[in-house]
Structures are given as C-alpha cells and as structure tokens.
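tool_call: predict_structure(chain=1)
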Amino acid sequence: MTAPSAVRSVTRAVDVLMALTSGPRSLGRLAEETKLSKTTVHRLLASLSHHQLIMQDTVTADYLLGPGSLRLVDALTTGMGGIGILARPVLSRLQAETLETVTLHTRFGAQRICVEELPSQLAIRYTAGVGAASPVHTGSAGKVLLAYMDAGEREHLLDHADLEALTDATITDRATLERELALVRRRGFAESHGERVVGGAAVSAPVWAPTGHILAALSVLGPEGRLKPAKLREIRPSVVEGAREISRRIAGAQMEQHDKDREKPA
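tool_result:
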C-alpha cells in the first residue's frame, strides 16, 4: 500500500468511527454518511472489528463502537482522570467495606461489558472479569443500564432482543422485564439473585455522564450465601452513594479540563 493510499484508508476509517459516535448505524447508513461505497465501508468495519474498535449488534445487525474504543477514550482522558482512575478510590472503599467484588459495567448494543473490576480477596468469590460481556437484560448491572437508557432506544432494543435465559432466574418475559425496569427507576438501584450466574447476587446503581445520560453501572457482587437480602439492603446505600460520587468526579474532571482549555493561549 502506497503512502497516499494508506493515509486515505486511515482517514476513511476515522470517518466511520466518527459516524458511529452518533449512535448505532447500519451498513447502508454508514456508507451514506461517509460517502463511501458499501464494499469499502464493509472492509473498513472488518479491520476495525479486529481491534474491537467497533462491534456488530447481534440483535439489530447495526454497527456500534466497541470495547477497544472505550480503552482509547480512557487512555485519552487519563490526564484529566479516566473513568477507571476516577472510580478506583470509590471501588476500593466499597471493596474494603463489603469485602466483595466491585465492578463498573457499560452497555455496548445488547451487551453489557465489565470495564473496571476490583475482585474480592475472599477464597470464595463472584467476579465478572474486565472485558467480559453478558446480555444486557441479565443481572443488576444490566437492569440499571437498560432502565436509564433513552426510552426510544430501549424500546427498539427490546423489540429486537432475544431475552435468552442464562439461568432459571433470568427474566425472559418482556412485560416482566419492563415492570422490573420501572421499579429500578423508582428505587434508583437494582438487585439480582442468580439471574446471570447461579448462586450469584448483586446490587447496582447508575453512574451518570455530565450530559445527564447513563454512563455505567456500579455494582457489588458476591455469592448468594453471603449477599442475602438483608446484606444487600445493608450495603445498598453505599453503592448508590458511590455511584453518585463517581458521577461527581467525572463532572468535576470535565469542568477542570474545560477550564484548562479556556486558559490556553489562542
């Protein structure tokens, strides 16, 4: 590949990524917005997918930004405090308080992906694993991410979703799930008991972006034998307040960066 053609390919790949920053796109819509042929866009998507910069929604077949993009964003914002860096003190405090695993999950299409985790140090523990993906309708983190996403986008996702059962406790009925999500919005948190993994329990709360959109779900998870309903009620306020603190940290870091940008000479 010659230098000019290599630069052109990079530029086109960036155009595709920038189009996806506005939300999921079909192959045809990407071709239309980037003014490239479908064949070219498909080739670029294959290359970007190899590095997990994009992924294809298995439900809608649309393309969206993938976990690799999240790693780039976190690396870019490290100077002002990436989400992992900003959240880590809160995760550490929650882990010390509960002795259980603490995680951050975010949504990519119909999947929820663990982007930060402090595993419990106890011999018997329940972990998610950074980078691990699960259907977004499963578990407390998924229910938080679904409950607070844009209503129209949520309806579209659920219209096309296969609410598969991972365990006997997984919610697979649309109406039941909708009622559960409404309850999450009223309460401000979600709980789960064996919905994703048999014998696992968790409580989660929403982390907000400065724009007011749901950014992530903060969770404490562990074996059901330790995280019985009474224990979940006990640690629930700490999880909710921890999520609020992370949201404040993110907003503060963004404001600080904006102030620095304004101070730069023209």
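agent: The chain has two domains: 3-65, 71-260. Proceeding to next step.
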